[in-house]
Amino acid sequence: MFLRNINTSSTTGVVPTAYQKGQSTDLTHQDLQWILYDRYEYNFQPIVCGLMIHLFHPTSQDVAKHNISFEEYTKFRPLLDQWISKFREFAIVTDGKEYYEGKTVQFSIAYQKGFLLLTRLKQAFKSAGYKVADDFAKIAFEKFKEKDKGAVSLNSFIAICLLLERSSMHIAPTANQRGLTTEMTYKDLQLKFNNMFHYKFHLHVCYLMIRLIHPTSQDVAIETVCVEEFHNLVAYLHKWIHAFRSLAYVWVGQVRGTQYVEAESLEFFPAIQQGVLNLARMKQALELLGFDMPDEFAKFTYDKYKEMDTGDVSLNGFIMICLHFVVRRAK
What we know:
By secondary structure, this protein is mainly alpha-helical.
């Protein structure tokens, strides 16, 4: 498996760490490996745990010298849960005779024996919120695939997601995340909303949320929102997500486009993670919110915000539409 040249200790698990002895709440990459095995019954490789540390210390090439706080770990964990869920959703498991969908077998079996071929890897990227070019997906697959399987394991998939996350978010802790201020940037909003809803909101969605609060700003990237404004945004989100879930559907079965279930019949998080809207349902959901539009404009909006690979509007796309409506009203 190809990974970046990041130094980690080779003595994992030999001597109990300060955290394991109850002397510290800070976690080394060794502690992460220990904690994650206990949580998932899966042995994350030391280098993968090192990349998790590297996410919070992006300029360091020696993560063996760095820790993260338990609070930072708990903030990161929902994102890891989401990645692992996406892996299981698209993974294939074989018993040597037959192949099975990872989502149809026990969690531990899916993690330990599941793998992703190139097409499934691209689907998992997309479902996790990462829009990557086909060329990049192919390069990542070739560099990270396990030589004995010719496919990507859970360790490899998490490693790729960690590198994608760092490149897309630059997750070096902001002043808000370090507790130095209560003001929030659009990157802080993404982290908070991701944790709150177990969903990967696109950075552009959070950028538009800042635009809603600062409609006349010429540089939204430097603007922030206060706690009260954040709670106002949360209220908007709850209302929009409720409308989305009430009309969305989720494709099921082996062949996409042949069978679906109503999102409202599912648990909240799977419903918003996997739910989509066609043109008619998008229009109905917007009407529930009081956003009326002519059919021609509705078609134009749908074509602009639908996902290219599925032809449907995801929650991210729906939230962007709602934000544009509210921003225009504010002006």
